[in-house]
Amino acid sequence: MAALFGFASTLRNQIDELRKQGPKAKPQLDKTVQNFAAFLAVLGKQDKMPIQNLLFLAQSYGSLGMHSEAAELLERSWWNQRSRRGKEEEQQKQVQLYRGGRMLLAHELRLCKKFKEAKEALDQIEKEPWGKGIQVHKEKILLLEDQEIYGGDNGAVMQWTAVMRQLRPKITQNPDAKELYYEAYFHTTHALYKYALKLTDEAKKKLHIQRAAKLIHSLETDRPEHGRRRFQEAL
Fold it and tell me: pTM of the predicted model, to two decimals?
């Protein structure tokens, strides 16, 4: 079984390399993706697979853009993981895998547009002692964005702004906080622009577009290494 998952890992790496080669590699990329998806379907039919194998399969489906398949695999198999939860909690590594798997399920549900189910999964995570961190909060705001809920106190713009405010004091000393801060900065700007486009009042629309433009200009001026990368990736 280890050999099969080793082969799957090799195919996944091949796909990553082919994507880097651009349009010239597209025929080979398409064929490799098709073969990889078929191989994942065979591996996914196993019962009671180790949690690390389950997460590998789900992440692999996600890397192919097959988010429905990833979510279905996690939903179908997750009862096995819950039934062994007490034993896994004796081993910290298994605990972390279990928690990561629950977050991955919420993530994949969002990406396949099962928004109600994604919110329910995140709400359940937030009830856990470990489920109150920034990564859970970030996934909930991304869920708002994907539903185009931008405005208001509970909309994506204000929620991302709150994340920036929380992280800003930490960015000079904590590299992870710095990365999250600029990710939130990008999403704040993106959500603000999208919110502006939905407005019917032309004056308000223009005002909010200008606000988004100022945020981009400020980032490009003060932190060009972050501004260019974030906004170029979105184009």
Answer: 0.85
